[in-house]
Amino acid sequence: MAEIFFSCQPIFDNELQHWGSELLFREGLENKFPSIDEDTATSRILSANFLASNAKQKLTRYIVSFGESSLLDEIPLSMPSQHLIIAITDECSPTAELVSKLRAYRREGYRILMDGKVINNEWRNYLELIDILSISMERDNPADWEYTISQYPQQVFLARKVEKQEELEAAQSYGFALFQGYFFEKPQIVRSEDVAPSVMSLLDICIIINKNPDDIDTLAKVISKDVSLLYKVIASANILAKTKTSKISNPRQAVVYLGVQALRRLVSLLIMSNLNHQHAAQLQNAALSRATFYSMLSIEDKAFNADEAFIVGAFSLLDVMLSKPMADIVAQLDLSNDVKRALVNKEGIYGHLLQMSHDIDQANWNGLVHWCNQLKLSDKSVLKDFEAARISTADITASMQV
Q1: For 298-318, what is the mean pLDDT?
Q2: Are strands 2-13 and 18-26 parallel, antiparallel or unpaired?
Q3: CA spacing 20 to 30 A to 162: which of 88, 268, 281, 329?
Q4: Cα–Cα distance, 253 to 235 (Å, whole number)
């Protein structure tokens, strides 16, 4: 597991209602700029905030900064347009390629933010692409912007560094519509846990996409072998889903829904995040072993589905990996009620599997026999499947070492 820190500073509208928040990557609890490059910082924020925390929270807008590389690689498309405001860093120049990408983002519904100084530099010919212009009150007098604001009614102006009541009132009177600063609230440093997919899994996905992008089954198989990647792919599919007729609850469904391009963007984001931490390897291996074990069982019950059993096993240790309550984690995913009941409360047929696994791990053979009787299974057959799953998982993880 890796700890991810980011600064979260709220932004308010003219009625002083919470409009959204700006996210900035931090290396620890101190609110200072990190010593890593912009693209890596951005990718870590997106991975931790959208894919490893509660993506369905009430807050609807995040401002996240993107450098040229991330923009050209279409990393913002990994996140829903209704939640993401794309802030373009000062280092970006309006090249033909970048301008084309920004037009594409606008067509997809994303809003774009830039510093107000672009009005007077090479970006001034592309202001129609910019929805929000930010002005630092530490640097500029808001009165100096009154005429400019009146000349650009299509843009929203954000006043940053608002420190005092009189500064807020002045900015409001001159036409600013959004406000951010210590007058409202100091930025909070948020700590999040993120679990790294295996680097080899990510590279395998890249190879398959490049060589045979239509091989859905192989993509799903590779994703299923890495618990963290499986979680992030399914989470991403559900986050991006605007309308669904059925739940996205297994890797094949997620790959089909995302499509090759979206999957490639997601993998690029995870690679850029530098998620090569292997602290959770033992937990991931244990979860994969459970998933394999459950899907191998021959249970004659109409409530049992091997794909759902696999997901239950794969996600059964995510609360430990992410240091979050299991109820919060499953709330992000459109899993079936049977899967949710099992993961959260150990109820139902899949809950019985989780309790049986626990008894096997604890060498509680009386407990094993009890659950085998409940599931109408032979305890000898179950232990044989358990050992086969353990060996299979060991073989898989040995091939994924980096």
Answers
A1: 87
A2: antiparallel
A3: 88
A4: 12
Percent residues over pLDDT 90 in the chain = 30
SS3 34: coil
Q: Which residues contact 237 (CB under 8 A, 6 or more apart)?
A: 248, 253, 254, 257, 258
Output 28 or 153, whichever has higher pLDDT: 153
Q: What is the DSSP string of 185-206?
A: -PPEEEEEEE-PPPHHHHHHHH
Spatial neighbors of 147 by CB under 8 A, at least 6 apart, are: none
Q: How far, in Å, CA of 23 to CA of 174, rounded?
A: 27
| Closest by Cα among 8, 32, 5, 33 to 21 | 8
DSSP at 299: -
- Cβ-based neighbours of 338, under 8 Å, separated by 6 or more: 303, 308, 348, 349, 350
Pick the CATH number of 2-193 from 3.30.420.40, 3.20.20.450, 3.90.770.10, 3.20.20.70: 3.20.20.450
**pLDDT of 142 over the 50 cut:** yes
Q: How would you classify the pairing of strands 111-115 and 132-136?
A: parallel
* Residue 275 pLDDT class (50, 70, 90 cuts): very low
What is the model's pTM? Answer: 0.54
CA–CA separation, 113 and 158 (whole Å): 9
- List, for residues 100-109, the tens digit of each pLDDT value: 999 999 999 9
If you ran DSSP here, which 8-state letter would residue 275 be given? Answer: -
Exposure letters 166-197 (e unless 16+ CB within 10 A, then b): ebbebbbebbbbbbbbebbeebeebebbbbbb
Task: Collapse the DSSP code of 230 into the 3-class scheme (helix H, G, I; strand E, B; otherwise coil) and give the result.
Answer: helix
**Of 16-20, 105-109, 146-150, 250-254, which gets the smallest average pLDDT?**
250-254
Three-state SS at 104: helix
Domain boundaries, the chain: 2-193, 196-402
In CATH terms, the superfamily for domain 196-402 is: Hypothetical protein af1432 (1.10.3210.10)
Asked, colleague to colleague, whether 2-193 and 196-402 share their fold, the answer is: no
